[in-house]
Amino acid sequence: MRAWILLLVLSAMAAGCDAGTGGEPGGGGGDAWGPGDAGGSTGEEGAMAGMTAAHNAYRLQAHDVPLAWDGGLAAYAQEWAEYLRDEYGCELQHRAWLGMDEEPYGENLYGATAWGMALSTSPQDVVDAWWSEEAYYDYATNSCTRVCGHYTQVMWKGSTHVGCGMAVCDGANGTTSDVWVCNYSPPGNWVGQKPW
User: Which of 121, 173, 181, 194: disulfide with 77, CB 3.0–4.6 Å?
Assistant: First the structure.
């Protein structure tokens, strides 16, 4: 049986390239899961192993500020991934958009659905998909021709910590979906500022 994969991608912070269209990044809010719980990539567990390295391989092409893994941000991201699994069947929704919490961090979402086969999405696959939006970003004008907000958040020099989570949904007709959430602190995609 032939398997088909549908990849679903939403933008970071809002639709389109919002490095220049929103107000405050992340909408403000408290810092209940502040960065610093874990340094480097050694705190990554299970499905998240390699996530920080995947980000940094791209970031270090443009500037010298790597991301460090943060266990508090990872717990925050995992909470949202599980909420999307339990309440929305892995449909991609940004936290602030649903009103559960006012989003204090940058956020990237990624989802995949497979029919008739198991999903094998890796952290590298997720970051590669976000980074592929680089083709739609013009640094000189700080603008996008299509969605590029995931890319700008991945590359945002002012973001120093990342934490990610993932959940899996079993759907009807033999489908399996996953949803990936990465949160960044401090948040990126500030209006009128370039990523680096």
Answer: 181
Q: Rounded CA gap, 15 and 133, in Å?
A: 13
Contact in structure between 69 and 42 (CB atoms under 8 Å):
yes
Task: Give the list of residues 6+ apart from residue 83 with CB closer than 8 angstroms, or none.
Answer: 100
Rounded to 5°, angle at Cα 125 from 57 and 131: 55
Q: In a structure prediction context, what are the per-residue pLDDT tens digits for the chain, which is 196 residues long?
A: 233 222 223 223 222 333 332 333 333 333 333 444 333 435 898 999 999 999 999 999 999 999 999 999 999 999 999 999 999 999 999 987 555 556 789 999 999 999 888 788 999 999 999 999 999 999 999 999 999 999 999 999 999 999 999 999 988 778 899 999 999 999 999 989 999 9
Q: Cα separation of 97 and 93, whole Å?
A: 7
- Per-residue tokens: 186: 């401090």
Backbone angle region of 166, left / alpha / beta, with phi > 0 → left and psi within -120 to 50 → alpha: beta
